[in-house]
Design goal:
Strand content: 15-25%
CATH class of the largest domain: Alpha Beta
CATH topology of the largest domain: Rossmann fold
Number of helices: 15
Strand order of the largest sheet: 2-1-3-4-5-6
Largest sheet: 6 strands, parallel
CATH architecture of the largest domain: 3-Layer(aba) Sandwich
Oligomer: single chain
């Protein structure tokens, strides 16, 4: 690989998996001499890591490409030429059509093929790669992993076999694929040696992960994996996301009560509170199923905080269906949540349903739902004031002399404290709570040890 320094700008759209993939691409490009920069204008290579989960997602990418074309064409003769790559789910869905519609694009690489990007840049591979080469991807990434900071994401599973009617993931990420337990354990051990204290296990359906145990050959689920990872010296926290209710088995639920370092926070999307809409969405569960799971989890871990996903305005949703969602939120109670208007995803069953909900109705329903979810989030955060929480400090805060970390419940926590505490877990007396963050004071033992 070339040792001459070049500059890469990676723009990330969409989900946490894309954020992880962008970081991995940056790691892959470092040996090829690429340093990350903050804008397209100063870059020799621009990577758009795209998401296809929303309607008109592709058109937004083409709009960005039009702006990049202007930057590329404006480069002076004495400047290095700009190269442009489109990665991610739009790349997978559109393929060669991207280069036909936007000749300014040099490379198109899908989410399971981006490990080939360095070879593509070197002219060693074709400029279009949209294979579902998941095994090859993880094999190459394991050799390139570098980590900065005390918290890291580890992909354990990709793809989806659920085929929810609103979702494009099975078409752009492919079928469910689990990495082996051995690979994951080795990667987490390596990260801990680099100073990582917390890992978040990632997957489109992370709790669908399954593998043979490296010692006994028995079939493991995510619960068994977490129990094994918890034995790694130096690892202080484990999280996982995103889960599906259909894969929330009893062993994983039990792990929440048995494993102290498994954080008391669970993101478990329900999408709708109406059984009729859940069936139309092809979710494979109803509200009674979901509520039974929540009851089991709260029995195993009474202090757990719940997060969820909600879609309003799915085709055919009536006022009664929407009220069922509102009632479900009131009944369950969420510490945080993500909520969206339904938008047509090209190629999905939901996009073909004729009974689409008017846009103005979706807007009104989303505003009503979000008001309730924000109220619950504020109430949950306020309930933590006066408590002492362990906080993993990750970075400098917004203000001088301030550091920022994460509580067990995933909120940002800001305190006045020395930078020497970054990377450590310290007890914090929580004194203030906003919608998205907490504030407090370091306990005396943390101050004394700094």
């Amino acid at each position: 690989m070339s040792s001459s320094k070049k500059r890469v700008y990676i723009k990330t759209f969409g989900c946490q998996m894309n954020v992880y993939d962008s970081a991995q691409m940056a790691n892959l490009l470092k040996p090829a001499g690429y340093d990350e920069v903050a804008s397209a204008e100063e870059a020799d290579l621009v990577v758009l890591n795209t998401c296809h989960i929303r309607e008109k997602a592709a058109e937004k990418v083409y709009s960005d490409l039009g702006r990049l074309r202007q930057i590329k064409e404006a480069r002076g003769k004495n400047e290095a030429p700009m190269q442009i790559a489109v990665a991610g789910c739009v790349a997978q869905a559109e393929g060669a059509e991207i280069k036909r519609r936007a000749p300014v694009v040099d490379f198109v690489v899908g989410p399971q093929s981006y490990q080939r990007l360095p070879q593509m840049l070197a002219g060693e591979e074709e400029t279009l790669a949209t294979d579902f080469a998941v095994d090859e991807k993880f094999e190459r990434l394991a050799q390139k992993r570098a980590q900065q900071g005390p918290a890291a994401f580890v992909t354990v599973q990709e793809g989806c076999d659920k085929f929810c009617a609103f979702c494009v993931v099975p078409y752009t990420r492919g079928a469910e694929h689990s990495r082996t337990a051995e690979e994951i354990i080795a990667e987490v051990r390596a990260l801990v040696r680099q100073g990582v204290r917390e890992v978040t296990l990632l997957g489109q359906n992370v709790n669908a992960w399954t593998s043979s145990g490296p010692d006994d050959g028995n079939s493991w689920g995510l619960g068994e994996l977490i129990c094994h990872l918890a034995q790694i010296d130096g690892l202080a926290r484990i999280r996982y996301t995103t889960s599906h209710p259909r894969d929330m088995d009893d062993r994983l639920i039990a792990a929440h009560g048995e494993i102290d370092i498994l954080m008391p926070y669970l993101h478990l999307p329900v999408q709708s509170g109406s059984d009729r809409i859940l069936k139309a969405m092809n979710r494979g569960h109803d509200m009674d199923d979901y509520k039974r799971i929540i009851a089991k989890i709260r029995t195993a871990r009474p202090d757990i905080a719940l997060s969820g996903d909600f879609i309003v305005g799915f085709p055919g949703e009536t006022d009664a269906d929407f009220e069922a969602t509102m009632q479900a939120v009131r009944d369950i109670g969420y510490a945080s949540a993500y909520s969206f208007k339904y938008s047509r995803r090209p190629g999905t069953p939901g996009a073909k349903i004729k009974d689409q909900v008017p846009e103005e109705v979706k807007i009104d329903r989303l505003a009503i739902l979000q008001d309730l979810l924000v109220e619950q989030q504020i109430d949950f955060n306020a309930s933590l004031a006066g408590r002492t929480l362990p906080v993993l400090f990750e970075k400098h805060g917004r203000n001088e002399g301030q550091i920022c970390g994460r509580s067990p419940y995933l909120q940002s926590v800001f305190v006045q404290g020395p930078a020497s505490l970054i990377g450590s877990i310290q007890n914090v007396d929580i004194t203030g709570a906003g919608r998205n963050a907490l504030s407090g004071n370091l306990c005396q033992e943390a101050v004394s040890s700094a």
